[in-house]
Amino acid sequence: MSSDIYGVLLAPHISEKATRLAEKHRQFVFRVRRDATKATVKVAVEKFFKVEVADVRMAVLKGKTKGGKRPGRRSDVKKAYVALKPGFDIQFGTGQ
Description:
Blueprint: E1 9-12, H1 16-25, E2 27-32, H2 38-49, E3 53-61, E4 65-66, E5 72-73, E6 77-84
Antiparallel strand pairs: 1-2, 2-6, 3-6, 4-5
């Protein structure tokens, strides 16, 4: 993995479940690189958003196999569930 910690986070994962987690538990979901670790995700989120991270959980979603005229496979996706310490928050899409 490169020393560039800002390359670890690919994008925030915005969905109904992710929004519910953010509202109730201050837990945010990010798509991350496949070789990312909990420690690198924690450092990247803390430096990029200037917050304190309490916990990081990782999940790998296996890509879907497609059939038909053009069979293929979608890429695997790795997600990080990041819980923040009390008093910290991340706002997506506020323009600030």
